[in-house]
């Protein structure tokens, strides 16, 4: 009787999950930051360990074999357990010196949080603050970030934190544009559904996939468009379009994973952000300009 127990490589399982989710080796490679050849090698190695192919190539992409389908839920459970081990180890770290990772949108950092985060780094010189500036949602469960500032209506159930402000939108333009306003307004479309189509009579003349790009087009007098108030109301070259109202949208939250909330670096960063947002709540909610910022 063969009592040999195969020792699986976690990287092989992680790559297997990426291919299963993306439906292709190329998509998985891009998702997890590995080369096409490396992803293929991991899949081959796992197939050898499990004594059978896990994928078969079809017209629609890489499809799971019967073995692959049976392995998938088990690999997903391993993934959850690995993440839980990492969070447990991080939560047990009681030192104030070390790293902590914050995820937020680049536009929020540039418009509001550059100074509070500079103050945090000065106040806690032994903490290495890693900032991920992205509009994509970083995973708290996988500790892609330890603290996130999310603009959402529904925080994850496993998250710990609090809402710090409502985050409405408004229609913005520039004084340059208004001085030579055309008969029919020019609309700068943002690839965010509430800001995609004109909310006033206008024709779409350009589109942008980030608020920063849209704000720059508006700043240059190319047209009008919708932006979060924390961007529009902190930019001295942008003004609200006359005779328009605030547009209710999302809420802004400061969050961490429930499992790591007691880590001293996480706690220090969250408390610092809470204090900063007390000052900035009015500007985020579109209720008035902050003269220190504009």
Describe the structure.
- The chain is an alpha/beta fold and 294 residues long.
- It has 2 domains: 82 residues, Orthogonal Bundle (Arc Repressor Mutant, subunit A), CATH 1.10.10.10; 200 residues, 3-Layer(aba) Sandwich (D-Maltodextrin-Binding Protein, domain 2), CATH 3.40.190.
- 41% of the residues lie in helices and 25% in strands.
- It is built from 10 helices and 11 strands.
- Strands 3, 4, 5, 6, 9, 10 and 11 form a 7-stranded mixed sheet that branches.
Topology:
Blueprint: H1 10-22, H2 25-32, H3 36-49, E1 55-58, E2 61-64, H4 66-91, E3 98-104, H5 106-123, E4 127-133, E5 147-152, E6 159-173, H6 175-179, E7 185-190, H7 193-196, E8 202-208, H8 211-219, E9 225-228, H9 229-232, E10 239-240, E11 247-257, H10 264-284
